[in-house]
Amino acid sequence: MRQELRLSARRLWKSPSFTLLALLCIALGIGSNVAVFSVLSAVLLRPLPFADAGRLAMIFDTHPGPGPDEEYEVSPPNYAAWKAKQTPFTEIGAEQPRTYSLTGTGEPERLVGAEVSADLFHVLGVAPRLGRVFSPAEDTPPGVDVVILGDALWRDHFGADPAILRRKLRLDGRSYAVVGVMPPGFDFPDHSRLWTPLALDPYKLPGRQFHSLYVAGRLRRGTAQRQAQLAMAALAGELSREFPASNAGWGVKVKTMREHLVGEVRPALLFLQGAVCMVLLIACVNVANLMLARFEGRRAEFAVRAALGETRRRLIRQLLVESSILSFAGGALGIALGWFGVRALLPLVPPELLAVRDLSFDARVLGYALLSILAVNALIGVVPAFTRSESDLRSGLGEDGRKASAGRRRRLLLSSLVVAEVAVAMTLLVAAGLLTRSFLALQQVHLGYDPGNLLTMRVAFPDQLYASRDRKIHLLQDALGRIEALPGVRSAAVSMVLPVGDPEISAIINVEGRPPAMPGEVLLVNNRFVSPHYFQTLRIPLLSGRGIGEGDRADTQLVVVVSKAMAKAFWPGQNPLGRRVRRGWANMVNPWFTVVGVVDDVQDNALDAKIGATWYLAFTQTSWPEYSLAVRTAGDPAAVAQPVRRIFRSLDPELPVGQVKTMEQRLADSLGRQRFSALLLAIFTGVGLVLAAAGLYGLMSYSVRQRTHELGVRMALGARRGSVLSLVLRQGTLLAGAGLVLGAGLLTFLVRLIESFLFNVSAADPVSVGGAALLLLAVAFLASLLPAVRATRIDLVDCFRNQ
User: Fold this and answer.
1) Are β-strands 614-618 and 559-563 bridged in parallel, bridged antiparallel, or unpaired?
2) Which of 288, 329, 453, 576 is 20 to 30 Å apart from 72, CA to CA?
3) Buried b (16+ CB within 10 A) or exposed e, 746-772
4) Which residues have C-beta within 8 Å of that of residue 452, sequence separation ≥ 6?
């Protein structure tokens, strides 16, 4: 074996063009596969930071929507009822996301965290690295001011001080004792950095119309997700019958913890992994073609060796050793390419793939790389080698051997492989074109507002410091007045949330004179509390009536401005001005709001989401703990960021201001996943296209070499160079055409899969399909042109001298 390795390595060294091309093809195929699988592994396969994570589930309230049932956070009364009843879970815990204002450690900072029940950490099976978790007494109303820190917060703000458990932090204007530090990697939920007790009071729970809790449960051993779903659905039915006014029509959804954490990322990553597997297939076809062509060039050598007594087994083993050297050397190079490629792409990773930032080529990734290398070795070595018969290995001597090398069967095999890789390249090109068109369509969505020259930021008001609504309103009014006086500022306004990027907040409403269409029907609208100048600042067109004005105060008539979609949904064909709506169900006694204006629809949530009904209330007539600020400027909006922060700091030094971004940055961030997927697919499609072109070029070059005598005879008998050029080009174009037809057939099976990733683009989009076909034909033409030109320059004297 050692001798065969040396002999094979020497032969590959003496064929540098063949060796380098084969190594490049394998490295590109393996590298792209390893790169995407490393991302997939980090997001989908890496163990969750919880004990026995397979038994963990998330539980949501659900309500029928236009399509599948829509998921909502759990209402606290429902959570309390589940805790009191027999469920398929050994225990359940709850958490409520919130933000905290950290002061006393420098610049005030807004931190993402959560209020959690004491048993949540036990449900998740996570123990702190320092200190302890909350006790039941600390989670009993009114609660105790204690806090658990995340590992990242402990390290970044406190230098991993082991004495942190003897310190107190000032959060939201109150002093909290640190009782624990969680282990690295634990940031449940949603990248939380600290946790405080939830301390729900069962006698003062909010109404069932408020859905604010994320509930996690640990399944009983032997209980499957489907069984838990059925049991919880039955429990939801009981609550529906017990509380028909609030729970009729509401159901329950049980999801695995990984399903909840991964969300919509999983299908996109699997799609990308399938795409790079196609790239690897193209690379394998290329190298297999090269190996077959190389065998044809060595037929005489193998025939001599066979004649001297070497067995077929020994000759095949020689071919396998050469393919193994190529596979493993190309695979090692591919792993290096994959590593550097992923590192280069890390800055483009969207927030939902943050796990990729801790990327490591662990045993799982390296094992996948090894399996890929073995698969490549089988395709480029085992298959070509074992398709060689005894007569193939002995037929290289004499005239018959040379004619056999150009036989129809071998040319058909080589051509079939090229057709297959063109078909795969066609599929990749169409998919990349569709995703690109979908991404462009998202960027061209009618927003309903002008994102240019708009600065945004988030201001949080701690309840303990701003228990009075008037104090909060007065500070915001003062801040807005000062901001609008800054040079270069045209207008400023606040809203509880801004379009795209802020949390989705809905309200259940009751429309005067509109009875429920069915039991349990819930009328939901996007909930917005805004200041005067809001519509002016975002440049949302006013269609009728008026907007929120300075005169809309707490002591005046309660008013509401509705979106065009809301007017159409609740007052079709009627004038909505003067109509009345209020929060809650029909049986709830809440004050009425009078509609005073209608504005154009705004793409409030994700850009690919359906526009929903929205109402806008005066922020002086309502109350909310956090507001987003929007500042319209004449020039660069980033230039006024620091002056605006200084204004808030002068009004309240402990008021944290964060998430400072332009609206255009928010829009770009919202498209991060789509941009990342389209970019990766475009890169890998480009690699596949180059490999397909190389394969076609290799086949045409090989074909011209094998047909040198035939072409020489044609030219000797009077064939013009143009006809020879046309003959070779036609052969390449026909192969590409056959690949396009086969690729179109493959696309018919992938339409449903591709459609799930598209926005406002059909999977049969003629621009994408036609563009891919034309591009492949152009590439095929160029790949065939050089061998065709070479064929027209055959030296007839040398051609016949060699016969």
Assistant:
1) antiparallel
2) 576
3) ebeeeeeebeebbbebebebeebbebb
4) 663, 664
271 touches 753 (CB < 8 A)? yes
User: Within 10 Å of residue 78's Cβ, how many Cβ atoms?
Assistant: 24
Entry field: residues in the chain: 803
Are 442 and 606 contacting, i.e. CB atoms less than 8 angstroms apart? no
Q: What angle do CA 185, 187, 193 make, to 5 degrees?
A: 115
Q: Environment class of residue 8 by beta-carbon count within 10 Å: exposed (0-12), middle (13-18) or buried (19+)?
A: buried
Query: What type of residue is 392?
Result: D
Distance CA 147, CA 130 (A): 12
What pLDDT was estimated at residue 306? 61
Residue 644: predicted pLDDT: 93
Strand partners, 561: 597, 616
- Mean pLDDT for the stretch of residues 704-733: 71
**What is the tens place of the pLDDT at every residue in 719-753?**
677 777 787 788 778 888 888 888 888 777 777 77
In 3D, which of 603, 581, 420, 435 has the Cα closest to residue 510? 581
**Cα gap 461→204, rounded to integer Å:** 23
Tell me the pLDDT of the chain averaged across its residues: 81
User: Does 780 score more than 70 pLDDT?
Assistant: yes
Q: Which residues contact 2 (CB under 8 A, 6 or more apart)?
A: none
Where do the H-state alpha helices sit in 489-563?
A: 534-538
**CA dist 703 to 296, 519, 728, 738, Å?**
11, 74, 9, 17
Q: What is the DSSP letter of 213?
A: B
Tell me the residue type at 540: I
CB neighbours of 155 closer than 8 A, spacing ≥ 6?
none
> Locate tokens 């800054």: which residue?
486
H or E element that contains 771: helix 766-792
Sign of the alpha-carbon dihedral angle for 426, 428, 434, 437: negative
What CA–CA distance (Å, rounded) separates 781 from 728?
10
Instruction: For 468-507, write each residue's pLDDT tens digit.
Output: 788 889 999 999 999 999 999 999 999 999 998 777 888 8
Could you tell me if 151 and 182 are in contact, meaning their C-beta atoms sit under 8 angstroms apart? yes
Residue with tokens 């042109």: 785
Structure tokens at 64: 């029928």
Q: Which residues contact 57 (CB under 8 A, 6 or more apart)?
A: 89, 216, 217, 218, 219, 225, 228, 254, 255, 256, 257
DSSP strands (E only) in 289-445:
none
- In the chain, what is the straight-line distance between the N-terminal and C-terminal CA atoms, in Å? 38
Taking the C-alpha atoms of residue 279 and residue 428, their distance in angstroms, rounded to an integer, is 8
Sign of the four-CA dihedral 154, 159, 163, 168? negative
Quickly state the pLDDT bin for 285 (edges 50, 70, 90): confident
- The Cβ of residue 314 has, within 10 Å, a number of other Cβ atoms equal to 12
Burial environment of residue 127 by CB neighbours within 10 A (0 to 12, 13 to 18, 19 or more): middle
Q: What is the mean pLDDT of residues 220-225?
A: 90
Tokens, residue 716: 């000797």
β-strands 657-662, 454-460: how paired?
antiparallel
Distances (CA, A) of 81 to 44, 202, 242: 33, 10, 11
- Between the alpha carbon of residue 418 and those of residues 192, 691, 693, the distances in Å are 52, 10, 9
Which residue bears the tokens 């961030």? 669
